[in-house]
Amino acid sequence: DSSNRWKRRTSVVTFTRRLAMEGEFIDEALAICERLRFDEEDLVRKGVGWALKDAMRASPGAKRRGIGMVKAMRGEGVSAVVTLYAVRDLQGAERESVLSVKAR
Can you spell out the DSSP letters for 44-61? Predict the structure, then answer.
């Protein structure tokens, strides 16, 4: 809720490496991503995409949740910045399934 973009960005990117390496704090990170998905600041949106990407690296279950979340966000019309950072590691059919979702 901070008016400071750096605090909003930090709130989400704090989790990134820990998510990818140990799979901890997935629920917390995804909740923050959900809350910040329409942030006006480009740096915050990049942080959201980065956290989603790292969350999807944590485990197969986290990957499914992350893909579902990114698809839902695309359906809501989230910035392409969030999507492109989030799907950076996805390939083939998984990547296409996310990118094929259009805003409602």
Answer: HHHHHHHHHHHHHHH-HH
Of the candidates 42, 22, 54, which has an alpha carbon nearest to the alpha carbon of residue 82?
42
| Percent over 70 (pLDDT), the chain | 98
Residue 20 one-letter amino acid: A
Q: CA end-to-end span of the chain, whole Å?
A: 27
Which residue is listed with tokens 């999807």? 56
pTM, rounded to two decimals: 0.89
18 with 24: CB under 8 angstroms?
yes
Q: What's the CA gap between 6 and 68, in Å, rounded?
A: 27
The residue behind tokens 């909740």 is: 31
From CA 27, how far away is CA 34, in angstroms rounded?
A: 11
Burial 40-57 (b: 16+ CB within 10 A, else e): eeeebbbbbbbbbbbbbe
